[in-house]
Design brief:
Elements: H1 9-34, E1 38-42, E2 45-49, E3 60-63, E4 69-72, E5 75-78, H2 80-87, H3 92-102, E6 116-119, E7 124-128, E8 137-142, E9 146-153, E10 156-161, E11 164-169, E12 173-174, H4 179-186, E13 187-193, E14 197-201, E15 210-215, E16 219-225, E17 229-234, E18 239-244, E19 248-254, E20 258-259, H5 269-272, H6 299-313, H7 318-333, H8 341-345, H9 352-355, H10 358-364, H11 372-385, E21 397-399, H12 400-405, E22 415-417, E23 420-422
Antiparallel strand pairs: 1-2, 1-3, 4-5, 6-9, 6-12, 7-8, 8-20, 9-10, 10-11, 13-16, 13-19, 14-15, 16-17, 17-18, 21-23, 22-23
Helix pairs in contact: 6-7, 6-10, 6-11, 7-11
């Protein structure tokens, strides 16, 4: 009689458990060979390693993978349940840390500009020494300029704007604005030159014409940025040019308050002329401070002087343009300088607009001078040549802020006219 061999249920279950063990062991060996990236959490810190077996005694191991199906010994194993079990071993704070690491390049420091106040005055609001309307004026905060709000005293904000600390009426200040609104509406980009001298070109390429030169630590407002070049504003010519992005720093900036300067009374020759100062030998009016004899000048000298004025003071008031003309003529009269207009203007190292090519550009375009600023420059040149002098015997001038940084405002002869200092 043939004997039948029977497997008892106990033996059958042991065989299933053993097979499951072998299968799971095979799976993890396969998985570790095909996935290099692991995330190790030790001492509450997230550390990325290529091979987890190089880390000794990790407290928790979480494998990063996608949910996929793998065929092992002709059996299908879904990873979704394994993924769920492993990720539940990592607490929420660790997952938040992981999110922070992934997005750190786009994290915005919210509230960075929350202490800035913006002037909403029609033109400007006065900054006063004390929080009352009768206090001394120490600065002017123009519309859309900003200041850091230090404190509030009743209806007054105590602010610091561009180093000027004082009080402004809260009626003219917008505060509590979001960072996005501050940046989008009131900020601008500027460059700071990193090297001793940098060429400015007409177009964004090295073969383009050089239109100017700028110098270390100078800053210029940015119009546009591309991969290799920055388009900047050149205030002296009211034009734009391009500089290599490799030689500048690009920063975010704002408009700040300016120091209050009491208005200067500038008198013309006719206003200063007195009977005692007239002479019988000449009909030329003379005053101790403001008048000299008329210059016998040529048409070319008039053109040269007008173009220099436009190069140096196109954005200034008429009084500022006239003052620049008189600096040139004062030098012609001075023993320190050459004795004619042409030599004074082209004297080496004196007027940067000459070496930068700006003067020549305007000379070539002189016959097309039609704007009000251009016409004012011609008028100022003619008036100065005819004897009108609004700066007495001053020989020097510069943009106001650089002149102050150099200490020229401390000179007893210094006067401010618009955005320039004369001494």
């Amino acid at each position: 009689m043939r004997t039948r061999r029977v497997i008892t249920p106990n033996i059958f279950f042991v065989a299933i458990i053993f097979s499951t063990y072998l299968l799971s062991s095979h799976f993890f060996n396969f998985y570790n060979k095909n996935y290099d990236e692991t995330i190790i959490i030790t001492d509450n810190k997230l550390i990325e390693q290529e091979f987890h077996n190089e880390i000794e005694e990790p407290s928790v191991i979480s494998f990063s993978y996608e949910t996929e199906t793998y065929n092992l010994n002709h059996d299908s194993i879904k990873l979704s349940s394994i993924e769920e079990n492993i990720l539940f071993s990592v607490d929420d704070s660790v997952l938040q840390d992981q999110d922070t690491l992934d997005d750190e390049d786009i994290v915005i420091d919210e509230g960075k500009y929350s202490d800035l106040g913006v002037s909403i005055a029609k033109k400007y609001v006065n900054i006063r020494k004390e929080p009352n309307a009768s206090s001394e004026i120490i600065g002017e905060l123009y519309r859309d300029s900003v200041g850091t709000i230090l404190d509030k005293d009743g209806d007054w904000y105590h602010i610091n704007s561009g180093g000027i600390k004082g009080y402004v009426s809260s009626e003219y200040i917008a505060s509590g604005l979001s960072d996005n609104k501050i940046l989008n509406n009131y900020s601008f980009k500027k460059i700071i030159v990193k090297f001793n001298a940098l060429n400015v070109r007409k177009e964004p390429n090295l073969d383009s014409e050089q239109v100017s030169s700028i110098y270390k630590s100078e800053s210029y407002k940015v119009y546009n940025i591309n991969e290799d070049w920055v388009q900047i504003h050149l205030p002296q010519t009211n034009s734009t040019g391009y500089v290599s992005i490799d030689y500048v720093d690009i920063v975010t900036d704002f408009n700040y308050a300016v120091k209050y300067e009491p208005p200067i009374e500038i008198k013309s020759i006719k206003e200063n002329t007195t009977t005692k100062e007239k002479t019988s030998k000449s009909n030329t009016k003379t005053t101790k401070e403001s008048q000299r004899e008329e210059f016998d000048s040529s048409t070319d000298e008039l053109k040269l002087l007008a173009c220099l004025i436009y190069s140096e003071a196109s954005g200034q008031s008429y009084e500022g343009k006239l003052a620049v003309a008189n600096v040139v003529l004062n030098r012609v009269k001075s023993k320190k300088y050459p004795n004619n207009i042409n030599k004074v203007i082209y004297q080496k190292g004196q007027f940067s607009v000459v070496s930068m090519g700006i003067l020549e550009k305007h000379l070539s375009n002189y016959n097309n001078f039609k704007s009000s600023a251009q016409k004012d420059c011609i008028k100022a040149a003619k008036e100065a040549l005819s004897g009108t002098n609004n700066i007495n015997n001053r020989l020097y001038f510069n943009a106001y802020k650089p002149a102050v940084r150099a200490g020229y405002d401390k000179k007893s002869t210094s006067i401010k006219i618009d955005g320039q200092l004369f001494w």
